[in-house]
Every structure is written in structure tokens, then in C-alpha cells.
TrEMBL record, chain A:
Protein name: RNA polymerase subunit sigma-24
Residues of the RNA polymerase sigma-70 region domain: 5-70
A UniProt-annotated Pfam family: Sigma70_r4_2
Annotated family: Belongs to the sigma-70 factor family. ECF subfamily.
UniProt organism field: Nocardia tengchongensis
Record keywords: DNA-binding, Sigma factor, Transcription, Transcription regulation
Superkingdom to which the source organism belongs: Bacteria
Domain RNA polymerase sigma factor 70 region 4 type residue range list: 98-149
From TrEMBL, chain B:
Family, per entry: Belongs to the YciI family.
Descriptive protein name: YCII-related domain-containing protein
Domain YCII-related: 17-107
Record Gene3D superfamilies: Dimeric alpha+beta barrel
Length: 383, 135
């Protein structure tokens, strides 16, 4: 049985149950139980209509739960609205589910967990494993999130920007355990792109595909970080790149630029170049300028400065770094890099060592320590 | 089986024998060091003695309550004078002797010049569960 296919159906089934009058939290629980039942019985007794089966089973589970709460009302419901298997409405209800799970009243962490469960159809155990959190903790986080959005009207348009940010967070989390969250984020963004007509959704999808295409080259077999300049470009997934570029181009053609499209454009310029030296850095800087117009984020300023360093020389890059908050992550690493390019090795080595001290994850710390050691070695007199 | 905590320190422990700051090593020496630690953890996982490990960033802050309705007081970090923990590994071994042996092995990770660092590690036993009375 194809578990991935089963998960595709989850948001639609929850949608149907809610449309029939179930509370979101109750519908979500009922569909999870129906999924477990499907996993148990489908291998021996595959249904003709998977979606219809899930809706019927989910609805029955919902009724059981409602019955347990108020038995009289439950009996009435069972008599009146016992579901008929068969054709189901083909309208896609999954779009509002994205909005609901990424509701602005939820913290980003809760929104991510709820989206993975209700839209992604992952089990609590899988989500907990992916985030290295105990299952009980994750179960609490999800159930609190569900309580918080109880009563949120479903006809509200919702905030697409929040939905995209949640999907972006899922993508950034990478992979661990048996669920590859980057692949999951791509799957969900594809679904979203299929059900909404908005260039930024395509922009985000293109961005994910272009990043994902380079994943194999980004870390060595021993887990170490490999910077773009020395990545083995033959490992890049050209099929994903082609798809990403095509999606991006059709999004850009609609002339409603947003930050994800701009980021994807930068990623596309990188994947397009045969080497770092042959990258069109001037155009990369231009896209960063667009991105700054859209976001004015310090991280964008930092990345732009590194691109300026490639386009106009390291001194120009360093000049573009002034005025940034000294506590900005990776600022010291960028300064170290640009100092090295400018030939100021003593300072570059000291900055790399400092950057390693303030790194926010272990692979980055190890990489920067190695860079510090490398530049120190250049300073030593040859034996 | 008993659990032990192996504590590594940025500062606060006595100086190691081969005490050269990491950025003065060669990149190959850094890589060899990281690989040694990785292999050590893998080997312990295979013998069933590994529990967990975590690395800690050096940026610590001291925090205490300043009373109800007021933001907590923060101070420090006092890294110059205080002990600073770099990370830990938890092992689950049969005997104290085995814990000592493993701590010694971890302390011998290669450093500058490819020679063992001989750094001081702190070894702390966990409190165990109380004995079952009815046994």
C-alpha cells in the first residue's frame, strides 16, 4: 500500500468532515484514527475508492466520538446521517486547511507541527522524531494548537504569507528519522500550488526545488559542510533544477514579484553557473537589491554584501557590511571570508576563529574552525 | 549498568597536556579530531554503552528571578572566571572502571601535531533508581 498516496488524501478528508459539521479538532482526530484503520485493513481488503472509504471511516469515527460524549445526540446523528459510501464532492477543501493550520494566532513551532499532522498526514510519532522531541511533548503541542484555533471561522481567507513561512520552516528543518521534512515541505507546497493561483507559491516551490537539487553536494560523507565554491556540481539534480527554473519563469512572467520569487531567482543563477567564478554575480546583486526592497531584512543585507564582494571586490563587500547589527548570525563569518579575499590574512584567521565561537550549529562551527586553521597555516613561514 | 556523564569544558578544567588552541591546528588535524570523536560515539553505540551527547555553544547567560511581574535579571556571561561547559556525553556502562577507561580514551583525541590532547574530562555518576524492596 502506498502510504504517501494515503497522506495525500488527509487534508481533503478532514475538509469534507468539517464541511459536514465536525469541529476541526474532532475531524482531525477522527481522520487519524481512520488512517490507522486503513493501514491495518487495506493490505488485505483494498477499497475501490480510497477517498470515499476514508471519508466514510473518518465520519464513523467522528460519530463514535460524538456518541461517547453525548450518547443521545450521538444516536440521533447515527440514525440520521450514517454516511453513504460512493461519490464525494471533488472540490478541494485542503486550501483552507493550510490557512487554518498556519493561523497567525499560533506560534511558528505549533503551526509547523499542526500543518505536518493535519495537512501532511504524519503521525505524532513521526513529527516528534523529526524534531527530536519526546512524543508526549509533541502530542501536547499539537493538541494545544488545535484548542487555540477552535472556533476560528473557516470562510476567512487567511494569511498566505504565514502559510508560506510555515512551509519554508518545514523545509529548512531538513531531514531526520524516517521523514524527510524537506521532501515533505516540497510535497505540501506542490499541493498548495495546485490549489491556489498565486505567483509567490510558485516562487517558494521553485526555491525549494532549486535548494533541494543541491543537497547531495552540500555535505560530505563525514557530515562536514561543503561551501558552494567547492561543491561537486555534477551531484546537482538537473531534473529538479530544470523544473524549478521553469516554475520560476512562469511565476516571474506574471509580474507580481515577491520575496520567494526573488530568492528563487538568486538560487537559479547559482545553479546555472558552471563555477563560482563564472556566476553572474552582477545579476545576483541586482536580485538582492530587489529582495531588499521587498523585505529590508538584515540577513538579506548580509548575503547581498557577500555577493557584492564577488561582483565588485572584497573591499566593496566589506563596505556593504558596515551598519549591520554586530550580533547578526554569520556576520563575523562573512567578514572573515571577505578579509581573506582581500588578502588580510591575520585578521581573517582571527575572524574565522571568532565566527566559530559564535556559530549556531555544530557543522558550521567545525567548518569555521577548519577555515581558521587553514588561514593560520597560510600565515606560517614555509619549512 | 550505571550511567555516567562525561563533561567537556571550554574553560575551568586544568590545562591539557597538548594545549594548543584549535585554530592553530592544521585543517587536517581538526578533521582528525572530529572524526575521532565521531568514531568513539559510533563504537559505543555498537557496544550498547552510548546514551546521548550534545555540544553547547560558549555563549551562556546567568539568569535569576527579580520577583513577580518583573523581568528576570540577567548578567554575565562570567566566562573569564567561571567554568564553561562545552558539551557532554552520557554513557551507560557496567562498572566505574569501564567509565574511567572510556573517559581516558575520549581524552586522548588527537590535537595539534596529531598528538593526543590529554584534556581533562569530568566524570560524574548519575543517581540510580532506588532498589526494589520486594526483590
Amino acid at each position: 500500500m502506498n502510504e504517501a498516496l494515503l497522506r495525500e488524501l488527509v487534508p481533503e478528508v478532514i475538509g469534507v468532515l468539517v464541511r459536514r459539521g465536525a469541529e476541526f479538532a474532532a475531524a482531525e482526530d477522527a481522520v487519524q484514527e481512520a488512517l490507522i484503520r486503513a493501514l491495518e485493513t487495506w493490505p488485505d481488503d483494498p477499497p475501490r475508492d480510497a477517498k470515499g472509504w476514508l471519508i466514510a471511516a473518518g465520519w464513523r469515527k467522528f460519530l463514535d466520538a460524538a456518541r461517547a460524549e453525548t450518547s443521545r445526540r450521538g444516536r440521533e446523528l447515527a440514525v440520521e446521517v450514517e454516511p453513504a459510501a460512493g461519490p464525494v464532492p471533488s472540490t478541494d477543501d485542503s486550501l483552507w486547511l493550510y490557512f487554518l493550520c498556519a493561523h497567525p494566532s499560533l506560534s511558528p513551532g505549533s503551526a509547523v507541527a499542526l500543518t505536518l499532522r493535519a495537512v501532511g498526514g504524519l503521525t505524532t510519532r513521526q513529527i516528534a522524531a523529526a524534531y527530536l522531541a519526546p512524543e508526549a511533548t509533541m502530542a501536547q503541542r499539537i493538541s494545544r494548537a488545535k484548542k487555540r484555533i477552535t472556533g476560528v471561522p473557516l470562510n476567512q481567507p487567511g494569511d498566505l504569507a504565514t502559510v508560506l513561512r510555515v512551509l519554508y520552516l518545514v523545509f529548512n528543518e531538513g531531514y531526520s528519522g524516517d521523514v524527510d521534512l524537506a521532501a515533505e515541505a516540497i510535497r505540501l507546497t506542490r499541493q498548495l500550488a495546485a490549489s491556489t493561483d498565486e505567483p509567490e507559491v510558485s516562487g517558494l516551490l521553485a526555491l525549494m526545488l532549486l535548494h533541494h537539487a543541491r543537497r547531495a553536494s552540500r555535505t560530505g560523507s563525514d557530515g562536514r559542510l561543503i561551501p558552494l565554491a567547492v561543491q561537486d556540481r555534477s551531484l546537482w539534480d538537473t531534473v529538479l533544477i530544470t523544473e524549478g527554473v521553469e516554475i520560476l519563469q512562469s511565476a516571474l512572467a506574471r509580474d507580481r514579484l515577491g520575496e520567494y520569487q526573488a530568492q528563487a531567482a538568486i538560487a537559479a543563477l547559482h545553479t546555472d553557473a558552471p563555477s563560482t567564478a563564472e556566476t553572474d554575480w552582477v545579476q545576483v546583486v541586482e536580485w538582492y537589491d530587489e529582495l531588499l526592497q521587498l523585505t529590508d531584512s538584515p540577513v538579506v543585507r548580509l548575503n547581498r554584501a557577500v555577493a557584492v564582494g564577488e561582483a565588485d571586490g572584497p573591499r566593496a563587500g566589506l563596505a556593504a557590511l558596515t551598519d549591520l547589527d554586530p550580533d547578526l548570525p554569520r556576520l563575523t563569518a562573512a567578514r572573515a571570508y571577505l578579509h581573506e579575499r582581500a588578502g588580510v590574512l591575520e585578521q581573517a584567521a582571527a575572524l574565522y576563529a571568532e565566527a566559530a565561537r559564535v556559530a549556531t550549529n555544530v557543522p558550521e562551527r567545525d567548518h569555521l574552525t577548519r577555515e581558521a586553521a587553514r588561514v593560520r597555516q597560510l600565515l606560517r613561514p614555509a619549512h | 549498568m550505571a550511567k555516567y556523564l562525561l563533561l567537556k569544558h571550554y574553560r575551568g578544567a586544568p590545562a591539557s597536556v597538548n594545549d594548543v588552541p584549535m585554530d592553530q591546528w592544521t585543517p587536517e588535524e581538526v578533521t582528525a579530531h572530529i572524526q575521532y570523536m565521531r568514531d568513539f560515539a559510533t563504537r559505543l553505540a555498537e557496544t550498547g554503552e552510548f546514551v546521548s551527547e550534545q555540544a553547547l555553544a560558549p555563549q551562556g547567560t546567568w539568569v535569576r528571578s527579580d520577583g513577580e511581574g518583573r523581568p528576570p535579571v540577567t548578567d554575565g556571561p562570567f566566562a573569564e572566571t567561571k567554568d564553561l561547559i562545552a558539551g557532554w556525553m552520557i554513557i551507560d556502562v557496567d562498572t566505574y572502571e569501564r567509565a574511567l577507561e572510556l573517559a581516558g580514551e575520549l581524552s586522548a583525541a588527537p590535537g595539534a601535531g596529531g598528538k593526543p590532547i590529554h584534556e581533562w574530562l569530568e566524570l560524574r555518576p548519575f543517581y540510580g533508581a532506588p532498589p526494589t524492596v520486594t526483590e
